[in-house]
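We append the chain.
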Amino acid sequence: MKTMKTMKNGKTGKHKKKRIPARKDGNRRIQKPDEIQKRDGIKKKEIMQVTYFFTALFLILSIYIVTYAATHEEELVNNSYNPRQQMLITQNTRGSIYSADGEVLARTVTDDNGKSKREYPFGNLFAHAVGYASHGRMGIEAQMNYYLINSNVPFSQKAENEAAGKKNPGDNVYTTLDVKLQETASEAMGVVYDGAIVAMNPKTGEVYAMVSKPDFDPNQIDTIWEQVISDTESSVLLNRVSQGMYPAGSTFKIVTALEYIRENPDSYSGYRYDCSGSLTHGEDKISCYHGTKHGSVDLKKSFAKSCNTSFANMGLSFDRKSFGDTVQKLYFNRELPVDFASSQSRLIVEEDTTDSDMMQNAIGQGKTQISPLHLAMITSAVANDGEMMKPYLVSEVKSADHTTVKKYTSESLGRVMSKEEAAVLKEYMQEVVKSGTATKLSGLSYTAAGKTGSAEYNTVKGESHAWFTGYAPADDPEIVVTVIIERAGSGGDYAVPIAKRVFDAYFE
């Protein structure tokens, strides 16, 4: 007989089957098998997703490293920490460097004891352009190091050399440099003044001459090294052509005139200004060189006579944003797109640029800084109908058996001014030679055009650098010459005669 269980409320009834909750381990609930399976599936999926992600990331990184190594091989080999560079130097004899006309500018010579030494037959003449290859590297020696320490002679010759215990001959570099023009430019500058001269082809960008003074003898670099680096006042290793920074002075009026033409395309030919020798605006005063009174001038005469007050007057009228865009397009405040060491030219024009700064900017003074190379590029753009070409020093690399390894050709940097704008500036630059500040270039067997400048660097003493930049022939330019003579004074008196000697040598 079944017994009845008495419930707490006094009633009796059958036992009910109670649902037993999942057992707990401490405070954690023990999951059922199907829940565990589901949880493990989620975890596996998450693990696989992370695995796929990192696998893909590794593959992308590997592809990037391989691609970078392939496209930046020169840069990687030239890194002093790369052991491959030392391996190549051990295996190969450093190649030679030649001028455009086949003269040896740098070579490696080996004495009877098998010791190699770098030799520079022209001594100081190509010091900054060609550079040196010990205590670091400079110039073309640095730019073309990858090729100079590599050898592309046939494998059979390499095998013979290895068997004989000889080094392989390195690849040779052929430059655009012209020995005669380089010699003329260096001699024209003389030994009294420091400064720089650059000559280039405005249509191709080939650099014919690159002179910077003070200079040095790269054959003696080991001897003079400690002296040079310990002398904080020395700037002998500075290539003033591409790294020297100077106030542009009146040569900058090329840019100012361009801006005025752009902002007044329909009325620039009607520009008039009455020059009294000085211009006062607020607390600022701008004077023409030696206080010269030019009288009534239009834009062309303002340019030819280099009238400071007229150009300061133009600067006051400029739209800041437009002027800032113009100088930016002309490569101010940007790295110059060249394959050798260079400095950034500086000229900041913003919405809040003061009238005082605008007056100074317009005449190339104040905070304006430019390198001779950059000025030559701007001049070349004018001469080349508004298209700027990339300056380059190397034309070709050949192996020791004269097989071409690499060729360098002209490269356009784009149109920085219209053909019409360039045509007007050409006309103005020709007038500088005909009736302006560069008449020493008139009446010659060739025609020339250009712009002079006297850039003040010490306003208290009135001291200035002498500038000239120009091209010839005037109607079909073949060569641009840019000259700066430090602390010399008037560009017309000092820089123009030096440029003339370079032009003369080219057209002989």
